[in-house]
Design brief:
Number of strands: 13
Organism: Klugiella xanthotipulae
CATH architecture of the largest domain: 3-Layer(aba) Sandwich
Strand order of the largest sheet: 3-2-1-4-5-6-7
Mean pLDDT: 93
Order of helices and strands: EHEHEHEEHHEHEHHEHEHEHEHEHEHHH
Shape: globular
GO molecular function, one term: glycosyltransferase activity
Number of domains: 2
Strand content: 15-25%
Keywords: Glycosyltransferase, Transferase
Protein name: Glycosyltransferase involved in cell wall biosynthesis
Radius of gyration: 21 Å
Distance between the termini: 17 Å
Structural class: alpha/beta
Length: 377
């Protein structure tokens, strides 16, 4: 039986997003779409019992391969090409964390494909720890040399990647979808901070990283146009109530207007989205965002920065804001959010367009595309 091994680890150095949801959803879609007489192995590091238990419950058809090495040891070993038997056969990695080495695709059947989600380690290296950037660039060079294909989430990302790697025709676009942990979550009722909010509010997913756009968003909420609108923030990248309180206080934003959701509960996040008047994606880096797809699926109008990747994802379903300068962007965010929240007709139109746009993104199709890619190889 032909087996495709998926490196199902959701954390990778120099990643601008937590890839846990992506790695889980993609692995399950690959399992669900496996052709007849084909199987899937989910490869995990030694200490990753959480994902091991997750896949045993949600993808019981998959074989779990638990390495004897921890993640740090594998990062070092794979970074210098010491892949051992992990690099044998068909391997797909949802990041650059992959066993890349010289191999004979024709005679021994080894195929290795990797994923590069964006080019921010090249464009914004100062936003990451120096060692993480070194690791990323080293693995990108190894992918250029040894990967049979490199998967990217958008056509814009493919174009961006060609500025840094010479990989010929080996780039493939495979789009993911909204995280099923949120979309298909069980349970009812909103998280306590959201339930306490009065009136209309905007939801976002932000952290402390440069990419999140939190500072620009809070400055927009200090503008008079949004005085009567609340803000619910799903915490990312270690954003804490203390850090948020410092930021809002410095801008004169009343504490009751801004609430932080530190919950990892998918059901609470889903319900917080559904009750929101709008979703905002304030980050200006040219990178994929699953939260935009979450908002489309759950029927929440989205306001986002005018970047090539986000424009490609949104199509005509989002409202883009000129991000060419800080002042222009902050003023534009405030104006756009105020209009969307106040204009019921505009919101309903954006919700309809968002639902239509969401249909273009499917985990099942993503799984099928990965199998198709390996069949072509």
């Amino acid at each position: 039986m032909t087996t495709l091994t998926v490196i199902s680890e959701g954390v990778s150095p120099a990643s601008s997003n937590d890839l846990t949801d992506y790695a889980r959803d993609l692995t399950r879609s690959i399992v669900a779409t496996a052709p007849r007489s084909c199987g899937v192995s989910a490869f995990l590091c030694s200490a990753n019992t959480r994902d091991r238990d997750f896949f045993r419950q949600t993808a019981p058809q998959a074989e779990i391969i638990q390495s004897s090495r921890d993640r740090a040891a594998l990062l070092r070993a794979w970074g210098v090409g010491l892949t051992g038997q992990h690099g044998d056969g068909m391997v797909h990695a949802p990041s650059l964390f992959a066993p890349l080495s010289r191999h004979d695709k024709i005679n021994d059947g080894t195929q290795t494909t990797v994923t590069i989600h964006d080019t921010t380690p090249w464009t914004h290296p100062h936003a990451y720890p120096p060692k993480a950037v070194m690791w990323f660039k080293n693995m990108a060079r190894r992918a250029q040399k040894y990967a049979d294909a490199i998967v990217v989430p958008t056509h814009t990302a493919a174009e961006n990647l060609t500025k840094y790697l010479d990989v010929g025709d080996r780039i493939r676009v495979v789009q993911g979808s909204a995280p099923t942990r949120v979309i298909n979550a069980d349970g009812n009722g909103q998280a306590d901070p959201v339930r306490a909010m009065a009136g209309s509010y905007v939801i976002t997913e932000c952290g402390t990283s440069e990419f999140s756009g939190l500072s620009a968003l809070l400055q927009a909420f200090s503008r008079p146009e949004l005085n009567d609108v609340g803000l619910a923030i799903v915490a990312r990248d270690g954003l804490t109530p203390e850090t948020l309180a410092e930021l809002t206080t410095s801008l004169g934003i009343a504490p009751p207007r801004v609430h932080l959701l530190t919950t990892g509960n998918g059901g609470e996040i889903r319900d917080a989205y559904r009750a929101a008047s709008a979703h905002v994606l304030p980050g200006r880096a040219d990178q994929f965002s699953s939260s935009m797809l979450t908002s489309f699926v759950l029927g929440v109008p989205t306001v986002h920065a005018d970047t090539p990747v986000l424009n490609e994802i949104a199509g005509d379903a989002g409202r883009s804001v000129d991000a060419s300068s800080d002042d222009t962007y902050i003023d534009g965010l405030a104006e756009a959010l105020a209009e969307v929240v106040a204009d019921t007709t505009q919101r309903e139109r954006m919700i309809t367009l968002g639902h239509d746009r969401a249909r273009a993104f499917s985990w099942r199709e993503a799984g099928e595309r990965i199998w198709q890619l390996h069949a072509e190889l």
